[in-house]
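Morning, I've got a small favour to ask if you have a moment. I've dropped the whole record in just underneath, so have a look.
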Amino acid sequence: MKPTQFLDSRGKTATPYRALWGVLLLGWVVSYADRTLTGPVVSWMLANDVGFIGEANDPRALGGLVGSLFFTGYMLTQYPGGRLGDRFGHREMIVLSLLWAGVMTALSGIVVGLIAFVGARVLTGLGEGVFYSNDRTLILNNTPPKRRTLGLGVVISGLSIGLTIGIVCTPLLIDWGGSLGMGTESWRVPFVVFAVFSIAVALGCWYFFHRHLGGKLHLGPPLLRLIAVSVPLLAAVLLLFVVADELRWPTWGTAIGSGVLAVVVIGVIVARLRRTPESATLLGRDIVIVYIAYIAILWNLWFFSFWSVEIVREAASSSLLAAALTAAFNAGAGILGFPAGGWLADRALRRGYGRKPLLVSFTVVYSLLVFVFALSIGDGQKPSLLLLGTILFCSGLFFNALQPIAQGITGDLVPEKQRGSAFGMLNLVSEIGAVASPVVSGVLRDATGSWAVGTWVAGGIMLSSGVLYLLVREQRPSLVSA
């Protein structure tokens, strides 16, 4: 899709970029609700000792592994998705991502058996993996420069809304399934319900793009390419899981194999990129530092998103619903934090300060708050739900505010026509954190009997990323009036 002109001949905006923000925000909502519901479902299985998780010898590690395999699939299509968007159109990839995720989320609630469930979640991740890079690119390419970081923040606040919906509504929907007489199969209900909303939003996105942003969409060619990319990746992930199951590998060993697969894919992509002229920008010094530093964001995001309900439930000895409501304070903080971070970054640009000081300071403050949370759930502590909710909310404000700032810096480090590929590389590399975090944290909990160790690790990783951001030489966009 060609770059959009921001002003018409009368000086009025020609691009409905605010409406675009709203449409993409809804995409984030359903996308993150679909992926977040696995954590509360696993917690329900643990609490009730049912299902393939409840029957496992090391249930928390297995639950974390399921989450990690989802993100293995999610990670592996990040760069291909951005590349396909640069070639076939970012609108097309967003619609395909949402439709694919909706269908596979429904399948996750229908299939029988652990391997089939893992396959359905991996397929969900493969489809959702193409959303991020194309969403970020559409915003940057269709929003006036002086409002771009705000747009990134407003839209990605849908992530927090989706997380909150996934955390809070999943236990309610499971209870509803129980009232319908589904018993131990009640966990299937959230998958089917959320899938319906995902498909509805996908159709809404198609209608908006067709009517207001570029006209007719051509979904056939990119769909065929996405299938061609996804089939071998699905086979590789499932082969890893089946071999590990047959040989009775420990779950952490399977997670290591998943990480090795991801590293191999990254290596192949980097080797191919080095032979192209794009390597000068996509593999430049500063953007590579951002790629690596962003691993900490995804580690922390999915440590708390996947395990926060279980952490709160154990630390405060609360019910699953009370724990979910408390944990939702962390996710819900993004509704304020994301747009606030974008607004502050744009304001800093207009005043000539740049965005990096905000990024570094927010990273440090967040890390310190994570350490406070670790102290509050340490051995012998009996924290209240109010205390845990307050810390989660305050840390969530800073954590979510720093993300659009980092994304804005990333987008300005490359030419416009390479942004899809750049954001794909950013999430491809950084999703290593999402793949490792759930299973590593689950293993640490099973080994130590406490969630405090995993929390200290998450905070330490985040603090180290602040040091890396100091090394980045920010490129500031030229601001135009709009």
